[in-house]
Design brief:
Elements lengths: L1 H18 L1 E2 L2 E2 L25 H7 L5 H5 L11 E6 L8 E7 L12 E8 L7 E6 L4 E6 L3 E8 L11 E9 L4 E5 L1
Antiparallel strand pairs: 1-2, 3-4, 4-5, 5-6, 7-8, 8-9, 9-10
Protein backbone atom coordinates (compact mmCIF):
# COMPACT_ATOMS: atom_id res chain seq x y z
CA UNK A 1 0.00 0.00 0.00
CA UNK A 2 2.78 2.41 0.96
CA UNK A 3 4.72 1.56 -2.21
CA UNK A 4 1.62 2.19 -4.33
CA UNK A 5 1.19 5.65 -2.79
CA UNK A 6 4.86 6.44 -3.37
CA UNK A 7 4.60 5.37 -7.02
CA UNK A 8 1.41 7.41 -7.50
CA UNK A 9 3.02 10.43 -5.83
CA UNK A 10 6.08 10.19 -8.08
CA UNK A 11 3.87 9.78 -11.14
CA UNK A 12 1.92 12.91 -10.19
CA UNK A 13 5.15 14.86 -9.71
CA UNK A 14 6.50 13.73 -13.09
CA UNK A 15 3.20 14.64 -14.78
CA UNK A 16 3.26 18.08 -13.17
CA UNK A 17 6.85 18.66 -14.27
CA UNK A 18 6.03 17.50 -17.78
CA UNK A 19 3.39 20.23 -17.97
CA UNK A 20 6.14 22.80 -17.32
CA UNK A 21 8.58 21.29 -19.78
CA UNK A 22 10.21 23.23 -22.56
CA UNK A 23 11.58 21.50 -25.69
CA UNK A 24 15.02 21.52 -24.06
CA UNK A 25 13.78 20.17 -20.71
CA UNK A 26 12.12 21.63 -17.63
CA UNK A 27 11.94 25.41 -17.78
CA UNK A 28 12.95 27.15 -14.54
CA UNK A 29 11.16 30.50 -14.18
CA UNK A 30 12.50 31.50 -10.79
CA UNK A 31 10.91 31.90 -7.39
CA UNK A 32 7.31 33.09 -7.33
CA UNK A 33 8.39 36.54 -6.13
CA UNK A 34 10.69 36.88 -9.15
CA UNK A 35 8.15 35.93 -11.83
CA UNK A 36 6.58 39.09 -13.21
CA UNK A 37 2.86 39.32 -13.87
CA UNK A 38 1.63 41.44 -16.75
CA UNK A 39 0.98 45.00 -15.61
CA UNK A 40 -1.73 47.12 -17.26
CA UNK A 41 -0.36 49.95 -19.35
CA UNK A 42 -1.33 53.49 -20.22
CA UNK A 43 -2.10 54.67 -23.73
CA UNK A 44 1.59 55.56 -24.11
CA UNK A 45 2.51 51.98 -23.20
CA UNK A 46 3.93 52.92 -19.79
CA UNK A 47 3.20 50.43 -16.98
CA UNK A 48 0.57 51.43 -14.45
CA UNK A 49 1.89 51.30 -10.91
CA UNK A 50 0.36 52.87 -7.84
CA UNK A 51 0.53 52.18 -4.12
CA UNK A 52 -3.22 51.93 -3.54
CA UNK A 53 -2.95 52.04 0.26
CA UNK A 54 -0.69 55.12 0.11
CA UNK A 55 -3.05 56.67 -2.43
CA UNK A 56 -6.07 56.26 -0.15
CA UNK A 57 -4.18 57.38 2.97
CA UNK A 58 -2.92 60.51 1.21
CA UNK A 59 -6.25 61.51 -0.32
CA UNK A 60 -7.89 64.24 1.82
CA UNK A 61 -11.28 63.28 0.32
CA UNK A 62 -11.16 59.77 1.87
CA UNK A 63 -13.02 59.47 5.18
CA UNK A 64 -10.77 59.05 8.25
CA UNK A 65 -12.71 55.91 9.29
CA UNK A 66 -11.75 54.30 5.99
CA UNK A 67 -8.11 55.33 6.43
CA UNK A 68 -8.07 53.63 9.86
CA UNK A 69 -9.03 50.36 8.15
CA UNK A 70 -5.91 50.46 5.96
CA UNK A 71 -3.74 48.16 8.05
CA UNK A 72 -2.49 44.70 7.10
CA UNK A 73 -4.81 41.84 7.95
CA UNK A 74 -3.66 38.59 9.60
CA UNK A 75 -2.72 37.27 6.16
CA UNK A 76 -0.43 40.27 5.63
CA UNK A 77 -2.64 41.60 2.83
CA UNK A 78 -4.31 44.98 3.03
CA UNK A 79 -8.12 44.95 2.83
CA UNK A 80 -8.17 46.67 -0.57
CA UNK A 81 -9.18 45.00 -3.81
CA UNK A 82 -7.72 46.85 -6.79
CA UNK A 83 -8.32 46.44 -10.51
CA UNK A 84 -6.73 48.36 -13.35
CA UNK A 85 -9.26 48.86 -16.13
CA UNK A 86 -10.09 51.58 -18.62
CA UNK A 87 -13.56 52.56 -17.39
CA UNK A 88 -13.59 56.06 -18.96
CA UNK A 89 -12.97 54.89 -22.52
CA UNK A 90 -9.90 57.08 -23.05
CA UNK A 91 -7.46 54.21 -23.57
CA UNK A 92 -5.74 54.77 -20.19
CA UNK A 93 -6.30 52.40 -17.25
CA UNK A 94 -7.95 53.73 -14.13
CA UNK A 95 -7.73 51.94 -10.78
CA UNK A 96 -11.01 50.71 -9.24
CA UNK A 97 -10.72 50.08 -5.49
CA UNK A 98 -13.00 48.33 -3.01
CA UNK A 99 -12.09 48.70 0.68
CA UNK A 100 -13.20 45.81 2.86
CA UNK A 101 -13.00 44.64 6.42
CA UNK A 102 -10.17 42.16 7.00
CA UNK A 103 -12.52 39.18 7.19
CA UNK A 104 -13.58 39.90 3.59
CA UNK A 105 -10.02 39.25 2.39
CA UNK A 106 -10.75 35.53 2.74
CA UNK A 107 -14.58 35.63 2.71
CA UNK A 108 -16.20 37.97 0.23
CA UNK A 109 -19.57 39.37 1.27
CA UNK A 110 -21.37 42.67 0.74
CA UNK A 111 -21.56 43.48 4.42
CA UNK A 112 -17.80 43.54 4.77
CA UNK A 113 -17.23 46.13 2.05
CA UNK A 114 -16.95 49.68 3.35
CA UNK A 115 -16.12 51.94 0.39
CA UNK A 116 -15.35 52.04 -3.32
CA UNK A 117 -13.25 54.47 -5.36
CA UNK A 118 -12.07 55.14 -8.89
CA UNK A 119 -8.86 57.04 -9.60
CA UNK A 120 -7.51 58.31 -12.89
CA UNK A 121 -3.83 57.57 -13.45
CA UNK A 122 -2.75 60.19 -16.00
CA UNK A 123 0.84 59.73 -17.18
CA UNK A 124 3.22 62.16 -15.48
CA UNK A 125 0.53 63.51 -13.13
CA UNK A 126 -0.69 62.53 -9.66
CA UNK A 127 -3.72 60.21 -9.45
CA UNK A 128 -7.09 61.98 -9.34
CA UNK A 129 -10.22 60.69 -7.62
CA UNK A 130 -13.02 60.37 -10.17
CA UNK A 131 -15.69 58.61 -8.11
CA UNK A 132 -16.25 57.54 -4.50
CA UNK A 133 -18.91 55.79 -2.47
CA UNK A 134 -18.24 55.49 1.26
CA UNK A 135 -20.95 53.28 2.70
CA UNK A 136 -21.24 49.73 3.96
CA UNK A 137 -22.36 47.01 1.63
CA UNK A 138 -21.17 48.43 -1.72
CA UNK A 139 -19.10 46.67 -4.35
CA UNK A 140 -17.85 48.49 -7.44
CA UNK A 141 -17.21 46.38 -10.50
CA UNK A 142 -15.48 47.77 -13.58
CA UNK A 143 -17.30 47.20 -16.85
CA UNK A 144 -15.11 48.35 -19.74
CA UNK A 145 -18.12 48.36 -22.07
CA UNK A 146 -20.30 50.64 -19.98
CA UNK A 147 -18.16 52.12 -17.18
CA UNK A 148 -18.91 51.07 -13.62
CA UNK A 149 -21.44 48.80 -11.98
CA UNK A 150 -22.16 49.61 -8.34
CA UNK A 151 -23.86 46.81 -6.43
CA UNK A 152 -25.45 47.48 -3.05
CA UNK A 153 -26.67 44.74 -0.79
CA UNK A 154 -30.28 45.27 0.30
CA UNK A 155 -31.03 43.98 3.77
CA UNK A 156 -34.26 43.04 5.47
CA UNK A 157 -34.73 42.70 9.21
CA UNK A 158 -32.93 39.57 10.37
CA UNK A 159 -30.42 39.42 7.49
CA UNK A 160 -26.84 38.74 8.54
CA UNK A 161 -24.23 41.26 7.33
CA UNK A 162 -22.79 38.64 4.98
CA UNK A 163 -26.04 37.76 3.34
CA UNK A 164 -28.47 40.43 2.12
CA UNK A 165 -31.92 39.41 0.90
CA UNK A 166 -31.29 41.16 -2.39
CA UNK A 167 -29.18 43.65 -4.24
CA UNK A 168 -29.54 46.88 -6.14
CA UNK A 169 -27.38 47.47 -9.21
CA UNK A 170 -26.64 50.90 -10.65
CA UNK A 171 -24.63 51.45 -13.83
CA UNK A 172 -22.51 54.59 -14.15
CA UNK A 173 -20.99 55.82 -17.39
CA UNK A 174 -18.30 58.43 -18.02
CA UNK A 175 -19.61 61.58 -19.71
CA UNK A 176 -16.17 63.10 -20.26
CA UNK A 177 -15.94 64.88 -16.91
CA UNK A 178 -17.72 62.66 -14.36
CA UNK A 179 -19.47 59.33 -13.82
CA UNK A 180 -23.25 59.70 -14.15
CA UNK A 181 -26.04 57.23 -13.53
CA UNK A 182 -26.82 55.36 -16.71
CA UNK A 183 -29.46 52.98 -15.38
CA UNK A 184 -30.23 50.12 -13.05
Amino acid sequence: MRTARTVLGCAALIAALAGCAAPSGVRVEGRAAEVERPVPTTIAGQPVTVDVVGLLRGDPKVNEKIKLMLSPCESGRYPVDSRYVDVTGDGVSEVVLNVQECRAVTYTAYGYNRAAYVYALPPGQPPAQLFAVEESGVVMQPDPGSGLVLVRGRYRAGDRSCCPSGEETTVYSWNGTAFVKAGR
